[in-house]
UniProtKB/TrEMBL annotation:
Keywords: Hydrolase. It comes from Maricaulis virginensis. It comes from the Bacteria. Residues 213-294 form the Glycosyl transferase family 28 C-terminal domain. This is UDP-2,4-diacetamido-2,4, 6-trideoxy-beta-L-altropyranose hydrolase. Coiled coil: none annotated. The lineage of its organism: Bacteria, Pseudomonadati, Pseudomonadota, Alphaproteobacteria, Maricaulales. The gene is rkpO. GO terms for molecular function: hexosyltransferase activity; hydrolase activity.
Length: 323
């Protein structure tokens, strides 16, 4: 840890079939950015089986054993010399956040929801900065999207005249929509000679292989409305977004206005709407090229470094000055 810093940073996140993998993926990217800037963080989780490979090289991992309470968490954070907690919970415990802040530890939440909690800073993960936000400091927009450094500085995507390779990935959550999508692609494969890769949720607990090689290889991605949308934009992959959870609706609604692709929401005649979208997009290289350029212009993959630097250079010193 950099001795000039006023205290250590801890990061708290879980993953799994019920909550997906986005929380641990973006937090592992932030952990790597902290480490690169000279501060090795703690990474606290209740689901160690869903941590990405190599995280222990950039962070000290602590696995929770037992119920998480304000007293247990603040006790451990204090004993570890923690000055800042970055929490990325699916559901935020307002009382826990209040207990951490009351102990003198700055608390930052990642994501779009606070569930009534009042953190010192909220880092939203969305493709468009908010026109207005809660009455707390906010970092927002594509410049602060937390992505693995593999997504930084990628070359412009080459666009095939005819799309042949389709990637389907709806995250770590199992959904019957995968079967519907597969059925649509089976019908189209004969007419268009498609090569289809479907990333299914793992049968066993664990983090799947990194998605970036598949994103770069594909011509079209059929993706859910989570973190993978940000990764696709950084690689310049034209997308058809299929939001599968309520918290994905905001980002899914941003895809078409930003020119990144199309959004096909589940519902009536889903298979027909998806089929029509693919039929239009597969032969249209000009349209897919515009989508690719829009994505790479929007997301440069350096958000984790920006956020880590902001926390180290501004948030931590400001918190120390208030002690």
């Amino acid at each position: 840890m950099n001795p000039s810093l006023p205290g250590r940073t801890a990061i708290r996140a879980d993953g799994g079939g019920e909550i997906g993998l986005g929380h641990v993926m973006r937090c592992s990217a932030l952990a790597g950015a902290f480490n690169a800037l000279g501060q090795r963080p703690l990474f606290i989780t209740a689901t160690p089986e869903y941590l990405p490979a190599g995280l222990d090289a950039v962070a000290d991992i602590r696995c929770l054993d037992g119920d998480e309470t304000g007293a247990s968490l603040t006790g451990y954070l204090a004993s570890a010399g923690t000055a800042l907690l970055v929490g990325d919970w699916q559901q935020v415990d307002a009382a826990l956040v209040a207990a951490v802040r009351a102990s003198g530890i700055l608390t930052v939440l990642v994501g779009g929801r606070t569930d009534g909690a009042t953190p010192d800073l909220l880092i939203r993960q969305t493709l468009v900065a908010s026109a207005s936000g809660p009455a707390i400091p906010v970092l927002d927009g594509p410049e602060v999207l937390l992505l693995h450094p593999d997504y930084a500085g990628l070359p412009p995507r080459e666009i095939a005249p005819q799309a042949r390779r389709v990637l389907v990935s709806l995250g770590g959550t199992d959904t019957p929509l995968l079967g519907t999508i597969e059925h649509v692609l089976d019908r189209l494969s004969i007419a268009h000679g498609l090569q289809v890769e479907i990333r299914r949720p793992a049968a066993r607990p664990g983090m799947p292989p990194r998605l970036r090689p598949a994103l770069e290889k594909a011509d079209i991605g059929i993706l859910a409305g989570g973190t993978t949308l940000h990764e696709a934009a950084a690689t310049g992959l034209p997308v058809i977004c299929v939001p599968i959870a309520g918290n994905q609706a905001e980002r899914a609604g941003q895809v078409e206005p930003l020119g990144l692709g199309l959004t096909i929401a589940p519902g009536e005649a889903f298979d027909e709407r998806l089929s029509a979208a693919l039929e239009a997009l597969i032969p249209d290289a000009e349209r897919r090229g515009a989508m690719a350029r829009a994505g790479q212009a929007l997301v440069d993959g350096r958000g984790a470094e920006r956020v880590a630097r902001q926390l180290i250079e501004r948030v931590l010193p400001a918190g120390a000055a208030m002690q």
